[in-house]
Design a protein that fits this description.
globular, 219 residues, 8 helices, alpha/beta, 8-stranded parallel barrel, TIM Barrel
C-alpha cells in the first residue's frame, strides 16, 4: 500500500515523518491552504528525503511556468494537480517535464464518476499517462483538505481499475477508518493530510505513525 503524508510545512517535521517510512511526502503550494509551504523550505525538505520517499508537489490552478519552476527548484519527483487543470494543460506540462510523474486529483460526490471517465478519455487522446488518480471528496468551493470522506461504495462500484490509472484514495481518512476504506475501495494507495493533525496544518506524529501502520496492516 502506497502511503502519502501530505501538507508537510517544515524541515523538522519532514525529518520526523521520514523516520516513519511513508512512500511519499506531499508539499502543498496552494497559497490559501493552511498547509502551504514556502518554496525555499520545500527545497530543503526534498533534500532530506531518501530515494525511497517521493517528493510530491501539490498545485491548484497554478500557471504552467510556476509549476515548472517550483518542480525544478524543489526537486519534485511527482506533480499533483488538484484544481481545474485541463487535459491539455497536463499534456503541455508533461512535454516539459517528462521525468516527473503526474497525479490528477478529482473531487467526487454521489453523482458518480462520469466526469472522471470523460477526463481520462481526453488524456488518452493526448497521450497523457498519469501515475495515478487521487480521489477526494467534493465540497463546494474547496479544493481538498476538508476532512470529508469520498463515497467509498461508489468508488468500489464505478472505478474502472482495469482501464484507469491507479486509484489513490484521499478525503477524510484517519487511523480509525483507514482499514474499512481500504477494504471497500481496494486502492493502490492512500493520501492523508487533516486526518493526522492535532490542529490545522500541524502534524501529530503519533497519528502519522498509526496511519502508516494501519495502511501496512490492511494491505
Amino acid at each position: 500500500m502506497w502511503v502519502k503524508i501530505c501538507g508537510i510545512r517544515d524541515v523538522k517535521t519532514a525529518e520526523q515523518v521520514v523516520m516513519l517510512a511513508p512512500d511519499a511526502i506531499g508539499l502543498n503550494f496552494f497559497a490559501t491552504s493552511p498547509r502551504c509551504v514556502k518554496r525555499s523550505v520545500a527545497a530543503e525538505i526534498s533534500k532530506t528525503l531518501p530515494a525511497s520517499i517521493e517528493s510530491v508537489g501539490l498545485f491548484v490552478n497554478h500557471d504552467l511556468h510556476d509549476v515548472l519552476d517550483t518542480a525544478r527548484q524543489c526537486g519534485l519527483t511527482m506533480i499533483q494537480l488538484h484544481g481545474d487543470e485541463t487535459p491539455e494543460f497536463l499534456a503541455e506540462l508533461k512535454s516539459c517535464v517528462a521525468d516527473v510523474r503526474l497525479l490528477r486529483a478529482f473531487r467526487v460526490d454521489g453523482r458518480g464518476l462520469s466526469d472522471v471517465a470523460d477526463y481520462l478519455a481526453e488524456c488518452r487522446k493526448l497521450d497523457v499517462c498519469l501515475a495515478g488518480c487521487l480521489i477526494d471528496s467534493h465540497v463546494d468551493g474547496e479544493y481538498g483538505g476538508t476532512g470529508h470522506t469520498a463515497p467509498w461504495d461508489l468508488l468500489a462500484d464505478q472505478y474502472d481499475a482495469d482501464r484507469w490509472p491507479r486509484l489513490i484514495l484521499a478525503g477524510g481518512l484517519h487511523p480509525g477508518n483507514l482499514a474499512d476504506a481500504i477494504r471497500v475501495t481496494r486502492p493502490f494507495g492512500v493520501d492523508v493530510a487533516s486526518g493526522v493533525e492535532s490542529e490545522r496544518g500541524v502534524k501529530d506524529l503519533a497519528l502519522v505513525r498509526d496511519f502508516i501502520q494501519a495502511a501496512r496492516q490492511a494491505d
